[in-house]
Amino acid sequence: MTATVQPALDGSIPAPTKTRTQRQAEDYETWLAEVRPRFIDAAATGRVFTCYEIADAHDLPAPPNPQAHWGRLMTLLREEGYVRTAGWACSDRPTAHHSGVRTWKGTAAARRAAA
Q1: Which of 11, 62, 77, 84 is the most exposed place for a label (fewest CB within 10 A)?
Q2: Residue of 48, 50, 106 whose CA lies nearest to 82
């Protein structure tokens, strides 16, 4: 069965909508090597951000275990001195239903490292 497209009232055919599929990394180390530089760059700006904002802006893959690995990434970056906690915000992730999520801010050390 093929899907039919409903024309608009003026008779024009709307452009097809693109569905976005998110890649998922095969293993943690490969995923970490791809996403870590993007988060370090975000920290170097000194602005407040959420994990989803950075992942969405750079079309980053999902980790093998999303429930654990996003938090582990941010813990590593905090322990290395790149980020600190900045508070809480409502998530922009479509599947999160505006749940509360941690926000992060780059440290002065992260800004110096980028210079």
Answers
A1: 11
A2: 106
